Amino acid sequence: MSSVLNTFSSLSLSRIYNNNHLQAPTHSNLTSASVSFTRRRLIVRAADTDTNEAKSKAPYKAPASGGSSINQLLGIKGAAQETNKWKIRLQLTKPVTWPPLVWGVVCGAAASGNFHWNLEDVAKSILCMIMSGPCLTGYTQTLNDWYDREIDAINEPYRPIPSGAIPENEVISQIWLLLLGGLGIAALLDVWAGHDFPILFYLALGGSLLSYIYSAPPLKLKQNGWIGNFALGASYISLPWWAGQALFGTLTPDIIVLTLIYSIAGLGIAIVNDFKSIEGDKALGLQSLPVAFGAETAKWICVGAIDITQISVAGYLLGAGKPYYALALLALIVPQVVFQFQYFLKDPVKYDVKYQASAQPFLVLGLLVTALAMSH
């Protein structure tokens, strides 16, 4: 449920859709700043400046030998080119982004104090995970790729949409099917749980709306690094937690506040993904934090948001008379800091995947520790 202007950088780009394939730029300097679309044609132009000031380092096609089939199925960079439509559809949903949402449901169920290891509760939780992960996160990611197609034409022109590997109408159909599927499951879960008020349906609807305004104009929250990344963090931490807790218990104000605070750590995680898109964000005027503050400052904002938030939550648990949970959470912060210095702070672009794979398991375990603390 799930679902971030300074001056324009020097960039000369012309991408032309011809028979659904993206051609490399042929002009070195362009004098107007504009973005124009037709059914078969996409042209992105940035203001004329010194071409030595900024150049996109993104390759114009996926690496033929280095592309990974696993990366393609997970929807992450370094993916191999694929012609199978179902694999392309899966790539658009970015399965690598589903686990945090699934884990959020687990945390919410744990925080409710009412989850039991019986067939009915397990079935409910699995259905809620499908709603949160494959359906609504898949909807969010496909929608985001659709509205980011001009940015991807700069940063990752070999991705399915800008490369023409999947037709426009099929992308739009996928967006609608995933959205309606997620909302339908939410309504079913409300009936199954016996809710008088369809809270899961409204959480799903609200999260879907947040996903839309995050990616789509005119609001396009992701244009602002602070608002957009916090919205993303809340979608990945707060919303699935709320769904899991509402499914098995009662969603209380203290949980709402605590998870929204925890979403500041999610803001930090979202910043990690902004570093690889600096060139495209500059060219299209998106005010991501690495663009607004520079990469050096933004990487410290990123780790600060992650670490300070978790330390603050540990302090809250200590003050609430739950010292063992607080100490457990603090112990899980230590390896995150180690990996930040080992990988992310050295080179946030080169080591972004390695850092997230190393550090984020400890963050999500900290979420579960917090959830268990709230259930007692």
UniProtKB/TrEMBL annotation:
UniProt subcellular location: Plastid, Chloroplast membrane
Family matches, as PANTHER family: CHLOROPHYLL SYNTHASE, CHLOROPHYLL SYNTHASE, CHLOROPLASTIC
Enzyme superclass (EC): transferase
Lineage, opening ranks: Eukaryota, Viridiplantae, Streptophyta, Embryophyta, Tracheophyta
Pfam families: UbiA
UniProt keyword terms in alphabetical order: Chlorophyll biosynthesis, Chloroplast, Membrane, Plastid, Transferase, Transit peptide, Transmembrane, Transmembrane helix
Name used for this protein in its record: Chlorophyll synthase, chloroplastic
EC number(s) from the headed UniProt entry: 2.5.1.62
UniProt key word Transmembrane helix: yes
GO biological process per UniProt: chlorophyll biosynthetic process
Any one cellular-component term (Gene Ontology): chloroplast membrane
Gene3D superfamilies cross-referenced by the UniProt entry: UbiA prenyltransferase
Membrane topology listed for this record: Multi-pass membrane protein
GO molecular function list: chlorophyll synthetase activity
Entry keyword Transmembrane: yes
Organism, as annotated: Durio zibethinus (Durian)
Reactions this protein catalyses: phytyl diphosphate + chlorophyllide a + H(+) = chlorophyll a + diphosphate
Listed transmembrane segments: 175-193, 199-214, 226-243, 255-272, 324-345, 357-374
Superkingdom of the organism of origin: Eukaryota
Primary localization: plastid
Similarity-based family: Belongs to the UbiA prenyltransferase family. Chlorophyll synthase subfamily.
Protein's gene: LOC111295383
